[in-house]
């Protein structure tokens, strides 16, 4: 293994910037550029988990003041020797120090390479490694809790448990075929059917958790619809708490679609704000409308903004016909004024939840937030202790394993004989193993880690 280094903190000027080194030469090389304030000290003499203040100096050039953290293998993130240089957070300073390290033989790390080493050195399984990335990208409290759960190895534990059961039965069949005198296959079909059913249920429940998992990591795909001037932009601004969308009195000014991520008390909405849906000859606006319609198809939630001060018109009829059947919240906006819209005329057309709000006077946020919670997190997702899968890769592998188990069941029903069962049991075993990073081809591992941040 060579020694790698990267800037581990964000690439913007900040108070502190960290350069991380990992590998057999990490401490020796850090020693060459780092002069402790107490000149009698050397990093190489420090035990693990020690910090040392000093300066980064090489060839009489002073680069920065820094604190060096020495962590010794194997109790480190990568299981290798690790040094972290806490420098001042100027990007140019950090880049210069990194270049200096490279000139001394350190290799710049690939994105995710530190975590990859943690995986290759057996400190974490692949599902845990992937959760590190989820954690970094987590947009809200629930996503953080879910990735921390996976980081703790909970998914790996469940998968390992399933694999043990499979392996035991594969081994049993093999032994019975080799040594029929000592291992009996009487009644085995029945037992195996029961096991296959049980394992299938576990896998299915993990698969079901995927949609909730996606809602957590990517946010609830939300589309805002409503006729022109209903107050869509105002509602979006209100929910975001900032003036981002442009609000005007001229009809049809929200031309194209805007995409925003907003946090409503820990729940992430990934919002598509669309142009008012109505017939139009204006091409720019038309594009927005088409986008709005296709967004509706893919939405998890529709926010239907109704101008409560104006009677419903054909625009509203059109919108209702488009969003029919989708989970929706109808926001009767402008309740700072007299509301004239009759809820019944809406509820007889679409199945929806109603809230009266005023985007202008910022009324109704609490009610909106608790309705959201109720709709999406009531029983299933509320408990953070539930294990969820969030990765499309995991989903695909679990589906594969499930199909293999289906084939085992078919073979049993068709009376194919035990040696047939093992083929598909092995396939299920292998698919599950890939979640943990076993039996994965190297290039796939590389691909997974390449999606990581630099320095992680
Ligand atoms: P959009 O075309 O649906 O995006 O509507 P806008 O957000 O641009 O708002 C249209 C008009 O309605 C603007 O003049 C807003 O100031 C006004 N408006 C929006 N929300 C409210 C509200 O809650 N109360 C009142 N009185 N006016 C509002």
Explain the layout of strands and helices.
Blueprint: E1 4-7, E2 14-22, H1 26-33, E3 34-36, E4 50-58, E5 61-71, E6 82-89, H2 91-103, E7 107-108, H3 113-120, H4 126-137, H5 141-151, H6 154-178, H7 188-218, E8 220-225, H8 232-240, E9 258-264, E10 267-273, H9 283-298, E11 301-307, H10 314-323, E12 328-333, H11 343-347, E13 353-356, H12 365-377, H13 392-413, H14 418-436, H15 442-450
Parallel strand pairs: 1-7, 8-10, 8-11, 11-12, 12-13
Antiparallel strand pairs: 1-2, 2-6, 3-4, 4-5, 5-6, 9-10
Helix pairs in contact: 4-5, 6-14, 7-13, 13-14
This protein binds guanosine-5'-diphosphate.
The site of guanosine-5'-diphosphate has 20 residues, from helix 8.
Do you know the CATH architecture of the largest domain? Answer: 3-Layer(aba) Sandwich
Q: Please state the structural category.
A: alpha/beta
Which homologous superfamily in CATH is the superfamily of the largest domain? P-loop containing nucleotide triphosphate hydrolases
Walk across the major sheet and give the strand order: 3-4-5-6-2-1-7
With helices defined by DSSP (H or I, 4 residues minimum), what is the helix count?
Answer: 15
Report the principal-axis shape.
flat
- Tell me the helix content: 40-55%
**Overall pLDDT level:** 85
């Amino acid at each position: 293994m060579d020694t790698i280094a990267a800037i581990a903190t964000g690439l913007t000027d900040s108070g502190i910037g960290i350069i991380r080194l990992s590998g057999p030469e990490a401490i020796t090389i850090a020693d060459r550029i780092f002069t402790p304030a107490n000149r009698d000290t050397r990093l190489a003499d420090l035990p693990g988990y020690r910090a040392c203040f000093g300066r980064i100096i090489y060839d009489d050039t002073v680069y920065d003041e820094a604190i060096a953290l020495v962590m010794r293998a194997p109790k480190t993130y990568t299981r290798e020797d690790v040094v972290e240089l806490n420098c001042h957070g100027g990007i140019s300073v950090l880049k210069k120090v990194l270049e200096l390290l490279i000139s001394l033989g350190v290799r710049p790390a690939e994105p995710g390479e530190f975590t990859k080493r943690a995986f290759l050195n057996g400190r974490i399984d692949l599902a845990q490694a992937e959760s590190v990335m989820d954690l970094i990208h987590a947009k809200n409290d629930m996503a953080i809790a879910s990735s921390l759960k996976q980081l703790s190895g909970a998914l790996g534990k469940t998968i390992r448990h399933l694999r043990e059961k499979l392996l035991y039965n594969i081994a049993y069949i093999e032994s019975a075929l080799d040594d029929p005198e000592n291992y009996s296959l009487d009644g085995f079909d029945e037992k195996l059917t029961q096991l296959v059913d049980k394992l299938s249920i576990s896998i299915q429940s993990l698969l079901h958790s995927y949609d909730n998992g996606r809602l957590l990591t990517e946010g609830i795909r939300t589309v805002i619809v409503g006729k022109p001037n209903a107050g869509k932009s105002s509602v979006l601004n209100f929910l975001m708490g900032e003036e981002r969308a442009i609000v005007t009195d001229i009809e049809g000014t929200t031309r194209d679609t805007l995409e925003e991520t907003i946090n409503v008390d820990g729940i992430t909405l990934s919002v598509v704000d669309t142009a008012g849906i109505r017939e139009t000859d204006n091409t720019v606006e038309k594009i927005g409308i088409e986008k709005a319609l296709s967004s509706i198809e893919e939405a998890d939630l529709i926010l239907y903004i109704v101008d409560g001060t104006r009677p419903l018109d054909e625009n509203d009829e059109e919108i209702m016909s488009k969003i029919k059947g989708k989970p929706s919240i109808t926001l009767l906006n402008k309740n700072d004024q007299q509301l004239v819209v009759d809820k019944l005329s809406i509820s007889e057309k679409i199945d929806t939840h109603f809230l009266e709000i005023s985007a202008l006077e910022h009324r109704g946020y609490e009610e909106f937030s608790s309705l959201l919670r109720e709709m999406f997190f009531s029983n299933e997702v509320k408990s953070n202790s539930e294990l969820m899968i969030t990765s499309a890769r995991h989903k695909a592998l679990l589906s594969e394993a499930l199909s293999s188990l289906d084939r085992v069941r078919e073979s049993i029903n068709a009376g194919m004989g035990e040696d047939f069962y093992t083929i598909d049991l092995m396939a299920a075993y292998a698919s599950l193993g890939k979640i943990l990073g076993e039996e994965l081809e190297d290039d796939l591992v590389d691909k997974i880690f390449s999606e990581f941040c630099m320095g992680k």
